[in-house]
Amino acid sequence: MVRYSKEEIEKATQELRAILKPGNKVYTILRHVSKSGMSRSISMFVVKKGERLDITYWASRVLEDRIDQKNDGIVITGAGMDMGFSLVYSLGWRLFPKGFKAPKGYWRNEPLKYETDGGYALKQEWA
Questions:
Q1: Confidence (pTM)
Q2: CA-based nearest residue to 44, from 78, 87, 1, 77
Q3: Does pLDDT of 104 surpass 90?
């Protein structure tokens, strides 16, 4: 975990809450994998009004993770799971810690009114 000031984290959280709403899709791009396979750099973006918007910088602040300056991605360690999903889940959990009002048709077309786990607020897809 990287140390960012409370002000930096709060500003990043406000920026991303203005951009991202429950049900939005966040795209992830694998930028680099270490030789050992235990670390990788992943960048994140969303598409708004037909434009690609890189959210890697803001997400790194909210998640308190460092950015790999050489490969332009958030450094995430570990293996054995979908690390892109893990990043997006963690971001949703930080942005919507108390859950969120589920958009229509959000969860398998079931009539879910409120999701208590904010980690599921955002959808993830590899680009």
A1: 0.93
A2: 87
A3: no
